[in-house]
Specification:
By secondary structure, the protein is α/β, with parallel strands linked by helices. The protein has helices at residues 18-27, 49-64, 76-89, 98-108, 120-125, 127-136, 151-156, 163-178, 195-201, 210-221, 245-253, 265-269, and strands spanning 8-12, 33-37, 70-73, 94-95, 113-118, 142-147, 183-187, 206-209, 234-238, 261-262. The chain has 12 helices and 10 strands.
Length: 274
């Protein structure tokens, strides 16, 4: 059977989704990718559910116009609030980052005590709690959720391992440590960047990277093929090219990033819900 050579589409409200793209590239080096960062309208976390669904629909439609064979919603807020809408709108697979991470957390936990950290919007949506309980089925689990809103600006400032970052992280995770969690879901795509700090503050806890879990699920849906030692082609688009984007993107993606193509909001909005 001939491999479907169409690219895989990935979108996020900003650059955090590049940590998801990084795992996708590592697991599927034979695939090509189209990435859209909606940097002009970031963050999604302080928008209404209706607005997030609208923005997510427009981003997905932009990717569909690039003939993608799958859409990965590399944003926890959009996954929490818009995933089912996108699945109804499109016939190609649409993956979010919450369900795969929830299933992995249930698989890893020994005690059933699971922590979840994320933005306020993600935590307030209770999407992880529902997904973890669904994945646990009849197994008894205890879920401890904490919003960590300062992590995103710290990461984007490049304060990956500084005294300030450690101090704030300690304040956030102390209740989780006291609750005795043995598994922590990193429920924001920025958080893997500071995973070493979190691991030191929660010794013995298993850290679940939602991007890695989603990449494994995506790979399972793609027809396997030999890579032939080729490098993936990554087409990168943003709705606003900020001065720090390229350097931050290189940190998130773990590889050199060329200048992205800026697309106007008008072109995104004209490709909204069908």
């Amino acid at each position: 059977m001939q491999r479907d050579q169409r690219p895989i589409g990935v979108f996020d409200s900003g650059i955090g989704g590049l940590t998801v793209l990084r795992h996708l590239i590592e697991l599927m080096p034979e695939e090509d990718f189209v990435y859209l960062g909606d940097t002009a309208r970031v963050p999604y976390g302080n928008k209404s559910a209706e607005t997030v669904r609208l923005y997510a629909s427009q981003c997905a439609e932009f990717l569909v116009r690039h003939n993608v064979k799958m859409i990965v919603v590399a944003c926890n807020t959009a996954s929490a609030l818009a995933l089912e809408v996108l699945r109804r709108q499109h016939t190609i697979p649409v993956l979010g980052v919450i369900e795969p991470a929830a299933a992995e957390a249930v698989r890893r936990t020994r005690s059933g005590s699971i922590g979840v950290i994320g933005t306020r919007a993600t935590i307030n949506s209770e999407s992880y709690e529902k997904a973890i309980k669904d994945a646990a089925d009849d197994r008894v689990v205890s879920i401890h959720s904490r919003p960590c809103p300062l992590f995103v600006p710290l990461v984007e400032e490049g304060w990956i391992d500084t005294p300030a970052t450690r101090l704030i992280a300690e304040e956030y995770v102390r209740p989780l440590r006291e609750a005795g969690i043995d598994t922590l879901v990193l429920g924001c795509t920025h958080y893997p960047i500071i995973a070493p700090v979190l691991g030191q503050l929660l010794p013995g806890a298993s850290l679940v990277d939602c991007g890695e879990c989603t990449a494994r699920q995506a790979k399972a849906l793609v027809e396997p093929t030999q890579s032939g030692n080729r490098s993936p082609r990554v087409s990168m688009y943003v709705t606003d090219n900020t001065p720090a984007f390229t350097s931050l993107a290189s940190t998130f993606l773990g590889r050199r990033v060329d200048e992205p193509v800026r697309v106007s909001l008008d072109s995104i909005q004209s490709g909204g819900p069908r």
